[in-house]
Design brief:
Elements: H1 19-37, H2 50-63, H3 76-90, H4 101-128, H5 137-165, H6 170-188, E1 192-194, E2 200-202, H7 205-219, H8 223-227, E3 232-233, E4 242-243, H9 247-265, E5 267-274, E6 281-287, H10 293-310, H11 317-327, H12 336-360, H13 365-374, E7 377-378, H14 386-418, H15 424-449, H16 452-456
Antiparallel strand pairs: 1-2, 3-4, 5-6, 5-7
Length: about 450
């Protein structure tokens, strides 16, 4: 497998670097990716059909993409490659033991080459499918090459973060940046949208609010201010309603964010005792939202694929209804059955993917029992046995898996329906990643303040 090593990589730092420098390199990674999102692809025409716009919004939520730029593919190839290889590894289809250093290295190299292969396939498909307009053969080759180079850059950024130069992973950071960018634009964008009546509308809520207040104080006209509560428009040349950022969307975002944050902080405590320290009892907390990120990514991406496959056949009334259920749930209140179906599809898929992921990713009752037993932990009143412990944990873990899938699907669907900024799935990912980064930074600060904790934790 020597050929796998012919790919750029980042070496680990010679020694553990301080938190301040790691935060600096994390900021550098963020800045590089933001520059990629505003650097246009040479030779690409920036025109999109309406269906493609909806698909691109979904892509930007889960893959941090930006249409027509170096970040057009975002982290999509890396995420898809990672999911595929992890499923193969956990299911035993790959002859790799990820507990061994050499096998982990092989897995990482396979991941990079698989991601490049997926990036190449996606780039060629986008060019041949006309997503970048009519391009010459040379122009198409240049676009594909640019996207492959961009994928390599993202892999190097992820290497930089994961090998100890930064905090967390570049994948999580890019998802966070992509969703934050959407929320920022919803607040501050100065872009103008022209409706079918040739009336201009400022996209960002704050600039629109400033213009509305100016009309109120100078002319006594409160119409524009009232219209900011709910802003449905039909953009020029289109037939479907688009909702610009408004106060209903802002309020929905804040309320749903608070509920998600509250539930993400909840824990379910399992009482245990330590075998090596008789008489010492304590609890191990399991998250109430046991798994939420991966199921909602799987759900969103699955619906995206179905929607994109059906878009060419949207002339058929039945297919058009299905596409609307997937792509246009945003305050679709005149079509209540479509909203209910949108909700049920999200919830069903999120529960199914949550269940599958728990079984594959080492989060099942058997896996948790094995970890507890290896740490010489057991539940008071029961014999110290892996099988007995797995039986005890099976019911709460299965319940938490279903509940977390239900909550993730519900929040994603309700966020889409209410017009949450960044989308329902995006808001879940944003809060989840923010909590992860908060925990990582707090942990690193504690390690620097109290070096003895490293020995206590076996580091």
């Amino acid at each position: 497998m020597d050929f796998l090593t012919f790919i750029p990589t980042v070496s680990r730092p010679p020694r553990k670097i301080p938190l301040s420098r790691r935060l600096f390199w994390t900021a550098v990674v963020a800045a590089v990716y933001i520059l990629m999102t505003i650097t246009p692809l040479y030779g690409a025409a920036h025109t999109q059909q309406q269906g493609a716009q909806q698909a691109q919004q979904l892509l930007s939520i889960i893959f941090g993409t930006a249409y027509g730029t170096l970040a057009h593919l975002g982290i999509g190839p890396i995420v898809i490659a990672g999911i595929l290889l992890e499923v193969f590894a956990f299911s035993g289809l790959m002859n790799l033991d990820l507990n061994k250093r050499e096998d982990r290295l092989k897995f990482t190299l396979l991941l990079k080459w698989t991601a490049l292969g997926i990036a190449a396939l996606e780039a060629v498909a986008y060019v041949l499918g006309g997503q970048f307009g009519q391009v010459t053969p040379l122009g198409g080759v240049l676009i594909v090459v640019q996207l492959l180079i961009a994928t390599v850059i993202i892999m190097l950024l992820d290497d930089l973060m994961s090998k100890g130069w930064g905090i967390g992973s570049a994948i999580s950071l890019i998802i966070f940046l992509g969703i934050s960018r959407q929320i920022f634009l919803s607040l501050f964008s100065w872009d103008i949208v022209i409706d079918n009546n040739d009336s201009p509308h400022v996209v960002g809520l704050l600039p629109a609010l400033g213009a509305a207040l100016y009309d109120l104080f100078t002319r006594g006209d409160a119409t524009a201010l009232v219209d900011l509560v709910n802003r449905p428009i039909v953009p020029k040349g289109q037939t479907t309603v688009t909702y610009l950022p408004d106060f209903v969307g802002l309020l929905s975002t804040l309320v749903l964010a608070f509920i998600i944050l509250y539930l993400e902080m909840m824990k379910v405590n399992i009482p245990v005792t330590a075998g090596q320290y008789r008489g010492i009892k304590f609890t191990i907390p399991l998250r109430f939202v046991y798994v939420s990120v991966l199921p909602i990514i799987f759900t969103t991406y699955s619906l995206l694929l179905v929607g994109q496959l059906l878009l060419p056949f949207a002339g058929n009334p039945v297919v058009r209804e299905v596409v609307q259920v997937i792509f246009l749930p945003h305050r679709f209140f005149f079509n209540v059955p479509a909203l209910i179906l949108h909700y049920l599809v999200y919830v069903a898929l999120a529960i199914a993917f949550a269940w599958v992921w728990v079984q594959l990713a080492g989060l099942s009752a058997e896996d948790q029992a094995r970890q507890f037993t290896q740490s010489q932990l057991h539940v008071p009143g029961f014999r110290q046995s892996e099988k007995i412990l797995a039986k005890i944990l099976e019911r709460p873990i299965n319940a938490l898996t279903i509940i977390s899938g239900f909550l993730a699907g519900s929040f994603a669907a309700l966020g889409n329906i209410l017009g949450v900024w960044g989308g329902g799935a995006g808001l879940i990912l944003l809060i989840e990643i923010a909590l992860q980064y908060y925990a990582l930074v707090m942990r690193e600060q504690m390690m620097e303040m109290y070096p003895g904790l490293k020995q206590l934790l076996g580091q």
